[in-house]
Automatic annotation (TrEMBL):
GO molecular function terms listed in the Swiss-Prot or TrEMBL record: methyltransferase activity
Organism per entry: Entotheonella factor
Pfam families tied to this protein: Methyltrans_SAM
Domain S-adenosylmethionine-dependent methyltransferase: 23-218
GO biological process, one term: methylation
Record keywords: Methyltransferase, S-adenosyl-L-methionine, Transferase
Positions of transmembrane segments: none
Protein name in UniProt: S-adenosylmethionine-dependent methyltransferase domain-containing protein
Length: 235
């Protein structure tokens, strides 16, 4: 918002400065964060309820793909819930180093692999390699921060969801999100239907997700209702 208003970007402590590197516990797992240097204070706290909800969709001994994995929150929860293998993909090698460290803290290194690269390209490569998954998680950054770019954003969301659908075995689960306020749930789910049609797959909605309760949606401030997600069975 400051950038949009032509204001300088600044970072300050409220009160005295303090060490910003911390370790937190989420869903029984330990995660290193940096309150100052990490994106959104180093952990996507608006997703914590959904990290826990993921457990019910993880097949014991299954293969899981976590795209846009950041520091591994969904990936590690999937491994802790019983997945045999988890592949996390993100464009940032720095956050993947942290994801790997987090996996080590929790004794999950042997089941979690992290790969740096453009997610769109990596999903295409996985398809070319014949990879198949039982669960795919897509938690991309916002593809638009204004109403004018919604159509382009939906095209991007459709592409990654289409590619993920092609990697899922019949009966697999797609857990997919958008964190853009300007992409409403109707547009998001219409896009999913179109992606499924192009992939010649059928989606059965199992659950819909919102942001965690400590990120409340205020009706008089519609921008606070920004996170939407779907868990869908894929046939």
């Amino acid at each position: 918002m400051r950038r949009n208003d032509g204001l300088p970007l600044e970072r300050h402590f409220w009160g005295e400065a303090f060490p910003t590197a911390r370790q937190i516990q989420v869903g029984g797992l330990a995660f290193d964060i940096d309150l100052a240097e990490g994106h959104k204070t180093g952990f996507y706290l608006d997703q914590v309820d959904n990290h826990i909800a993921l457990h019910s969709y993880v097949p014991s001994g299954g293969a899981v793909l976590d795209a846009f994995c950041y520091t591994g929150a969904f990936a590690l929860q999937a491994a802790a819930a019983g997945a045999a293998t988890v592949l996390g993909i993100d464009s940032s090698e720095a956050v993947l180093d942290l994801a790997q460290r987090n996996a080590g803290y929790n004794g999950l290194s042997e089941r979690c692999t992290f790969r740096a690269g453009n997610v769109f390209d990596q999903l295409r490569q996985l398809a070319q390699d014949g990879a198949q998954y039982d669960l795919a998680i897509l938690d991309p950054p916002s593809f638009t921060r204004n109403r004018e770019a919604v159509a382009k954003a939906l095209s991007g969301y459709k592409e990654i969801n289409l590619r993920a659908l092609k990697l899922l075995r019949p009966g697999g689960i797609l857990v997919t999100f958008t964190c853009s306020y300007y992409v409403d749930r109707l547009h998001f789910e219409t896009m999913l239907q179109q992606a499924a049609g192009d992939a010649r797959r059928q989606l059965i909605v199992r659950e819909r997700f919102n942001q965690a309760g400590h990120h409340p949606e205020v009706l008089s401030i519609p921008e606070t209702g920004y996170l939407k997600g779907v868990a869908a069975e894929v046939w």
